[in-house]
Amino acid sequence: MNAPIDHLARRRTRHHSERPRPTIVRCYSEYTRYLDAGASTLVIDSGPDQWLELGHIPDNVDVTITGQTCAAVTGGSITAAGRCFLQATHHARVSAYDFAHVEAFDTATIDAHGESRIVGTDYADIRADEHAVVFAHCHCHVHAAGHTRIAATDTTTVAIDGDAHVRASAGVHIAGDHQSTHLTIDARPINRLSDHLNR
User: Fold this and answer.
1) pTM (two decimals)
2) In 45-169, at which residue ranges do the beta strands (DSSP E only) sit?
3) pLDDT tens for each residue of 72-123
């Protein structure tokens, strides 16, 4: 009547995740093989010696690049973490964390967190918070929140929120807190911020 309860079996059942475990990918051929096999979650950690042209990320696949992976995407959604390098073009959507470095072109959308570094151009849309650093030019749209550091030139639009530090050239459209003590008009804002970061 009173059978002993198997606490381990109960715990295994209770903590069993509904989400599939991510598949670790080390090279492009593994990436395509797992995509063809129907993988839904991929983590790419290939190292800096390989350049991965990932193309358009399928809508039903969660892809994260991490470590020192170097890659390019032409659309879809991807997460960049660690100290990776990513080029995002067309309508790609990127969530950048840690120390990820992302170059955004052609209407790419970037959510920059942590201490990620973003270079945006050609109508890229960048939302930066925490301690992200953004270099923006050529019609970029930047929403700067948290303690971000922004350098903007050309016809960029920057919306300032919170304690963001913004260096902007005279042609930049500033929205939000115009009276910010952290707004500096500078003839060469990108060079100045680069010099500051390299000290």
Assistant:
1) 0.85
2) 51-56, 62-65, 70-75, 77-80, 85-88, 93-96, 101-104, 109-112, 117-120, 125-128, 133-136, 141-144, 149-152, 157-160, 165-168
3) 999 999 999 999 999 999 999 999 999 999 999 989 999 999 999 999 999 9
